[in-house]
Amino acid sequence: MPELPEVEIIVRGLRGPLVGRTFTGVTVRWPNSVKTPVPELQATLPGQTIEQITRRAKYLWFHLSGGDSLFLHLKMSGDLLVLPVTEPDDPHVRTIFDLDNDHQLRFKDTRKFGRVYLVRNPNAVIGRLGPEPLADDFLPADFAALFARRRGRLKPLLLNQKFIAGIGNIYADESCFAAGLDPRRTADTLSADDLGRLYHAIRQALTAGIVHKGASLDSVYRGGEFQNHFRVYGRTGQPCLRCGAEIQRVVLGGRSTHFCSTCQR
Ligand SMILES: [Zn+2]
Questions:
Q1: What stretch(es) of the chain map to CATH 1.10.8.50?
Q2: What single-letter DSSP state applies at residue 199?
Q3: In the chain, fewer beta carbons within 10 Å around the N or the C end?
């Protein structure tokens, strides 16, 4: 699943071909993925121009000239393709957005967990998300304040999008390693010093992910090379790059978690 860095790279790549284009139609082949009534989507979207594309957490946010917001969430296997209308179709394309230049934005999604929303008020989709970890005004004190009165385990908290936005399994594991924190720790045991290290570790891991154009772990997300820089994620049984001990794997909150039990306390 793409996390914050991967979605950020996708957004940056779509601005060139899409900002300034106007939607002329939309075809929905898998209605379950569209969280706006399809007749409403088809009546409201055409004629609106894409003024900007940004990211909030793992959502792509299309700011439209009519004042509406189109949100796309890629979930497990979503992929966005901008192609000429003459390009051959693909059976895994679930939604087709027609553009005013004989191209289409095709939302391909093998596993069908991806989502499409067209809303007037963006908060209907993104209103309950936690803070953006890379925002300029997100300070160490803001991060520490999130942990007040929390008792859950560290790793599931970092994955909770209402707690903090955009972090998934890869960047949570890499951040805990860089901060020297056992992902099984409970929030109420973390000291101010622990939280300070974790704040910087998260921002450094996400920034490194963006610099390396994201992690490419399957055929869906292409072109990134952050997978060559993982220090714990997916390295079960291999030696820790810091101390040489074997990297451990446990399941925490239903998710594979990789860590060094010597370096992470
Ligand atoms: Zn180690």
A1: 140-259
A2: H
A3: C
CATH 1.10.10.60 fits 140-259, yes or no: no
CATH 3.20.190.10 assigned to domain 4-126? The reply is yes
Q: How far is the CA of 115 from the centre of ligand 1 (A)?
A: 39
Rounded to whole angstroms, how far apart are CA atoms 122 and 81? 24
- Give ∠ CA 234-140-252 in degrees, rounded to 5: 30
Residue 239 alpha carbon to ligand 1 centre in Å: 8
Distance 254 CA to ligand 1 centre (A): 24
Whether residue 1 has pLDDT greater than 90: no
DSSP tag of 28 = E
Closest to 99 measured CA to CA, from 46, 34, 44, 41: 46
**Residue pLDDT, tens place only, 196-240:** 999 999 999 999 999 999 998 776 777 799 999 999 999 999 999
Q: What is the pLDDT of residue 31?
A: 96
**What is the DSSP secondary-structure string of 51-76?**
EEEEEETTEEEEEETTS-EEEEE-TT
Per-residue pLDDT for 189 more than 90?
yes
Q: Which residues carry out catalysis? A: 2-3, 58, 255
Q: How far, in Å, is the centroid of ligand 1 from the Cα of 204?
A: 19
pLDDT the model gives residue 211:
97
